[in-house]
Amino acid sequence: LYRKKAVRGIELTVIPVLVAFLFVAVKHRTINTISPFMDSPWFYLHVFLYFLAYAALGVAACVGVHYVLGGQKDYEQLQYRWTLAGWSILSASLLAGGVWFYIAYGTYWLWTSKELWITLTWFLIGLYMHARMMGWLRGRPAAVLGCLGFAAAFFTYFGVGTVIPAPPTQF
Known about the structure:
Number of helices: 5
Strand content: under 5%
Structural class: mainly alpha
Mean pLDDT: 82
Distance between the termini: 44 Å
Low-confidence stretches: none
Oligomer: single chain
Helix content: over 70%
Radius of gyration: 17 Å
């Protein structure tokens, strides 16, 4: 991204995001065992796509912050493209997760806090993309909404299990 699109100064936004991820990753306890329910190709596909989507959304948010601070018009389009890629991969991840969950537990969906928040995140990012594509939202407000989509995704991944505890499941 730095070399191809000449987004100069992007490291000013990327480095704090990386530090935040590393800090939270160090604070989480390590899980050394895997449940037999999670030992499925669908689960691994779901997790791989989920992390790939978060990476694309993180890049989009960094470009969006850089656009808000710098104001170069090319960055807004670049943020939209990275968000579109991240949202598409996130959608595929949710489908793979639904298939895995059905195989493991016999249902596609439970109303847990994690599933609710990822759905809200998916809709928020979809709202940003729809408003941006239809021309209702352009410029800095669009970039801020795109960054809020990543903030919601960040909270979904790191905050829902700690700030909003998940109730015990029946399984």
